[in-house]
Amino acid sequence: MKESLNYFKIPRAKWREYYEKNIVPLTLEELERIKSLNDRISMKDVQEIYMPLVYYLEMQLNVQRFKQEQTARFLDKPMTNVPFVIGIAGSVAVGKSTTARLLKILLKEAFPGKKVQLITTDGFLYPNAKLKELGILERKGFPESYDMEELITFMDKVKNGEKASAPVYSHQVYDIIPNRYDIVDNPNILIVEGINVLQLPSNQRIYVSDYFDFSIYVDAHEKDIKKWYLERFEMLLDGAFNDPHNYYYSLAQSGKRDEAFEIAKETWRKVNHVNLRDYILPTKNRADLIIEKGHDHIINELLLRKY
Ligand SMILES: Nc1ncnc2c1ncn2[C@@H]1O[C@H](COP(=O)(O)OP(=O)(O)OP(=O)(O)O)[C@@H](O)[C@H]1O
Ligand SMILES: CC(C)(CO)[C@@H](O)C(=O)NCCC(=O)O
């Protein structure tokens, strides 16, 4: 194992040994069920990367529980459930939601008695109308485009065991869906996924990550991420063809695919690339675990924080 700065650098071949040593393998039926729920992830990654990760997370859950027990005993107060929060950060289109959805499935499978929920911070973006009013529509995804105060209030409620609601963003509509909320109600584990989860909001005193018990940064080469962004754009465009409510409807109807791809490339260059370089990548070294993906989405290296 090669060590670098404050991380253990663990190649895939080494990481997967932690699976063999410590974990009861998933049955074929369980693997098939996971595959049908999340067909974007290779089953090899599930076995060799995610199962050891679930095992490691179980240890972290036990540590968190032990600390709470100690505090409750010290204060002579009853133990309450404090949700274990996992943050997942990384570039636009790097695969955060895909990773988060898989982790949710695996955690549910591993801990059938535990309530596992997932939200994305996309819901805390200001609606397009508000972004326009602020003159920052072309800065969607940048720190100032999120209502960080709302996000912090949400996290505060979650950690205190209160019912909390997260607004919902749609990539298809390209906006917040009015009056739609994801309700988070005192789960044992909450996964919070978003480009901004490791950022320090400029006008706040606390990080969102102050509420995290474990954080993951999904990383890849930018040229690969750009390719995945364009592939996802193609899927959004194709899916828009028969749906007038879709943001990409008129673009899809126009049949001008080349022009559409030029717009997407320009958006990457002017918006998502700049956001990655200036605001997302600098947060990488705050994560407890960095997952390095190759051009085919396969994970080839993991960096685990030493301290
Ligand atoms: N492990 C994987 N295998 C194959 N395809 C993947 C994998 N992970 C992600 N993808 C594809 O890459 C694209 C981006 O993934 P995803 O939507 O999960 O990214 P994201 O980081 O959540 O993006 P955003 O921040 O914009 O919501 C999607 O088209 C997705 O299907
Ligand atoms: C919603 C975000 C910010 C993050 O998921 C992103 O997907 C996005 O829409 N960025 C704005 C630039 C673009 O249209 O790609």
TrEMBL record:
UniProt keyword annotation of Chaperone present: no
Keywords: ATP-binding, Coenzyme A biosynthesis, Cytoplasm, Kinase, Nucleotide-binding, Transferase
Subcellular location: Cytoplasm
Domain Phosphoribulokinase/uridine kinase span(s) in chain numbering: 85-222
GO biological process: coenzyme A biosynthetic process
Gene Ontology terms, MF aspect: ATP binding; pantothenate kinase activity
E.C. number(s) listed in UniProt: 2.7.1.33
InterPro entries: P-loop_NTPase, PanK, PRK/URK
Source organism superkingdom: Bacteria
Pathway in which this enzyme or protein is active: Cofactor biosynthesis; coenzyme A biosynthesis; CoA from (R)-pantothenate: step 1/5
Residues annotated for ATP binding in this entry: G90, S91, V92, A93, V94, G95, K96, S97
Catalysed reactions listed for this entry: (R)-pantothenate + ATP = (R)-4'-phosphopantothenate + ADP + H(+)
Gene Ontology cellular-component terms listed: cytoplasm
Similarity comment: Belongs to the prokaryotic pantothenate kinase family.
Entry protein name: Pantothenate kinase
Taxonomic placement: Bacteria, Bacillati, Bacillota, Bacilli, Lactobacillales
